[in-house]
Amino acid sequence: MAKKPQLAFETRPWRDPAAKPFVRVRNVSKKFGDVVAVNDVSLDIFKSELFCLLGGSGSGKSTLLRMLAGFEVPTSGTIEIDGQDMTHVAPYNRPVNMMFQSYALFPHMSVEQNIAYGLKRDHLPSGEIRDRVAELLALVKLDDYGRRRPHQLSGGQRQRVALARALAKRPKLLLLDEPLGALDKKLREETQFELVKIQETLGVTFIVVTHDQEEAMTLATRIGVMNQGEIAMIGEPHDIYEFPNSRFVASFIGSVNMVEGVVTEDEPDHVRIRSADLGADIFVGHGVDCAPDQILWWAVRPEKITLSREMPAATDGANVTSGVVEEIGYLGDMTVYQVRLESGKLMRVTQTNTLRGNPDAITWDERVYLSWDPTAGSVLPV
Amino acid sequence: MRRGWFLPITATLGFAFLYLPIMSLVIFSFNENRLVTVWSGFSTKWYGELFADPQMLGAAWRSLQVAFFSASFALVLGTLCAVALVRFKRFRGRTVLAGTVSAPLVMPDVITGLALLLLFVAMESLIGWPAGRGIVTIIIAHSTFCMAYVTVVVQSRLSDLDLSLEEAAMDLGATPVRVFFDITLPIIAPALVSGWLLAFTLSLDDLVIASFVSGPGSSTLPMVIFSKVRLGVSPDVNALATIIIGVVALGVVAAMLIGFSQQNRTRARRG
Amino acid sequence: MSDSPRLPPRRPWTMLERSLAAFGLSGRALVIAAPALWLTVFFLVPLFVVFGISLAVKQFGRPPYSPLLTTDEGTVQLTLHLSNYLRLLTDGLYVAAYLSSIRIALISTLITLLIGYPMAYAIARAPERWRNILLMLVILPFWTSFLLRVYALTGFMRGNGVINQVLGVFGIEPLVMMQTDFAVYVGIVYTYLPFMILPLYTNLVKLDGALLEASADLGSRPWQTFLSVTLPLSLPGIIAGSMLVFIPAIGEFVIPSLLGGPETLMIGRVLWDEFFQAANWPRAAAVAIAMLVVVVIPILLLQKAQDAIVEKGR
């Protein structure tokens, strides 16, 4: 697993309301004809962050990235980078570089020429260009490949050349469009690690677009989840997973069980929700912004539910229900159970296989009890 | 798969059909006899006669000049047109431009030739230019119809070109014009070469359009050949044809070999 | 470098662009305007000129047609003659020439397809190292002179040409081939065969061998597989190749005038004779306009419809 840029708790600038953002996107919208690709997005990104824009295809994440690079001009709104308004600055005048999803390596130039291209556009002295290229080749561990053409390289090597080329001009901000998308799984994991290491060494701000939630969780200091041109949620990976703010975010990241319910008790320190789907009450151990009789959704991750044959020690008849095991998927480290509740609702539960070859494991068609902690799930608006 | 006899036989017959007339042309160019089809001994005298014919040589030189300039103008205009059609998705008159540039491809030569001649005549009486017709009017006419072919060739290469290559160059600090010369042009270069060669060949080969728009004393090679051939078979045309076929064959084989070796090199590196 | 504010560096290209912009020209406008202007002046306008002159009548002088606009004591007079078009309709020669052009082009396209298809198929199925060489053999004649290839045929089909000499060896009477419609068919097929083979080859070489195996596996005999799988899938290639032969064949001039007889009527030749022999420019212009309306425009519309179908198919 890749190591994230380690920022001490108190140095997470997004938690400091006084901190000055490095990239400031304000009320940016982009329309292509009648299609709204990006809708009123506001976003602050801080220096040395590794920010991931996560979303499905057509969520607007790539359009947002292209507006940051200058390939698209926002229909409305402004983009500021390092205190300067960049909304209408051409891509070739921005202190921003991009690593393309297809890598976009110039096929008629050698690796060295590719990396030197941006430096030549700045009219740097040739000695300095040579040194800088050598330095970058060393950084991405391609010292001996300078004279090769892109088509003579493997996919992973090409990816590193693209990174070196984008870093050559020492941009303040590096945009990466699906940087690992074209690599196979094993290579992707190694590269994630290297990418983070390079980012830490150089202290450059990275904005990464990806559709791969695992990649976003591993890389990012913060994630912006995008849906239909809007930012659905911005937060640290942990917040996005454990405290999603909407049904979309909860179901987009990881797997989740979601049930509908009605608020029966609304107190400052707890809430009670009656759910017909579950056939049980949910006792939530903290206050929720809601009113009695309000309809809400409650989302719980599969690993937060415990399975047992015996009815667990009761907690006011809440946070427990029962069903029949319908499907079992053995994954090695854990087992996935699909449990059919009386309401017909299917619940997904995962249990870690702590015992080796457990002969007493829960099996098909068994009646089981599902239980969870008062803080296991998230209460979400309809 | 089952090996049939039908395909090899038809293919052989087809190739025989394509090549036997050409080969007989080549063989009889070395025939000593004036009666082209009666073999009376090996001789290269028709080649000597060909190179002593000032009309033929003058027309050949003129045709090469016309072809060179027409192909070059057509290349510039056709490339611009292809760039406009592929890169600029929305501009007023785009459909008209797209239709107009491809229309010469389906326009019969006789119409193109007649239309341009009538234009030149009308222009001459209106603005006094072009004064008479000659090599300039032929170049204009050939540039116009060759440009359509260049556009098609360049267009297909351009639309295969990954747009992010150009964006990447721009991202690294290159202005749009710079991007065109640094990235786009080198990558589409093979298409430009084949477009130019195609235009050159078409211009060199054209009889009909040139016949309309040429003036006295500016006959091109095909016009001279046509007037000779019309009167019957003439052995020096055989000699000329042999030379042209030889040059073309060498060129095509060389192009193929270059293509092959490039492919092999790429393969060897990848393997 | 990274922390200093980046000033836009002075570059020659930006200078050029700026000076162009000073004249209200962006690079983009130039790229569009240059070819558009050229095509307007040398392609679209000439067609209107042709139309204009088709409404004049022949007269002696320079230019050899009646002026459309005349000034008579200060008033401008427009004189249009429809006589050329009336003549096209009433004189059977022209209608016959149009019909016969279409017939000759259609028949020779069909023959080219029948010869070209098996050749393209054979090349597509040949071992890979052979394919490029065979393909080169198809392309090679295309790069040599069209006129000289037609000329080569005359040497082949003449009364005392190669074919008749070979026949003579077997004691067969010489055949009359030149100056017949037959020679025109041979000429068109011979010169346009590469245009048929290339698109067919491109299509057939992409045909997935697994499809043929699947068809055989499901019980088709080879000829059934051909009719039910190969042929339908190669339809785009057939259409493309046929268009490439049919379109130039219909306006052909060189082939009918070198190979055909006096009774071989083709519209390109009629136009040529009207212009060069009869020196009747307005009549030639009328023939051209009629050709445009009857032949060229339908072909353009057909192509557009075909493109639309292809687009939809995707």
Structural commentary:
The complex is a heterotrimer of chains A (382), B (271) and C (314). Chain A has 382 residues and is of the alpha+beta class. Chain A has eight helices and 20 strands. In chain A, the strands form four sheets. A six-stranded mixed beta sheet of chain A has the order 6-7-8-3-9-10, sandwiched between helices. Chain A has a five-stranded antiparallel beta sheet with strand order 13-12-11-14-20. The mean pLDDT of chain A is 90. Chain B has two domains: 64-232, MetI-like fold (Orthogonal Bundle), CATH 1.10.3720; 235-271. Chain B has helices at 6-28, 45-51, 54-87, 94-106, 109-127, 135-160, 163-171, 176-205, 208-213, 221-230, 235-270. The mean pLDDT of chain B is 87. Chain B has 271 residues and is mainly α. Helix content of chain B is 79%, strand content 0%. In chain C, a hairpin with a 2-residue loop joins strand 1 (69-72) and strand 2 (75-78). Chain C folds into two domains: 12-78, no CATH class; 83-313, MetI-like (MetI-like fold, Orthogonal Bundle). Chain C is globular, with a radius of gyration of 27 Å. Chain C is mainly alpha-helical. Chain C has a two-stranded antiparallel ribbon. Classes of the chains: A alpha+beta (382), B mainly alpha (271), C mainly alpha (314). At the A-C interface, loops of A face loops of C.
CATH class of the largest domain in chain B: Mainly Alpha
Contiguous helical run count of chain B: 11
Number of strands of chain A: 20
Parts with pLDDT < 50 across at least 5 consecutive residues of chain A: none
What is the arithmetic mean of pLDDT of chain B? 87
* Tally of strands of chain B: 0
Shape of chain B: globular
Low-confidence stretches of chain B: none
The chain-level structural class of chain B is: mainly alpha
- Reading the helices and strands of chain B in chain order gives HHHHHHHHHHH
The dominant shape of chain A is elongated
- Measured between the Cα atoms of the first and last residue of chain B, the distance is 28 Å
What would the average pLDDT of chain A be, to the nearest integer? Answer: 90
Largest interface: B-C, 89 and 90 residues
Strand order of the largest sheet of chain A: 6-7-8-3-9-10
Largest sheet of chain A: 6 strands, mixed
What is the share of helical residues of chain A? 10-25%
How big a fraction of the residues of chain B is strand? under 5%
Helical content of chain B, roughly? Answer: over 70%
Class from secondary-structure proportions of chain A: alpha+beta
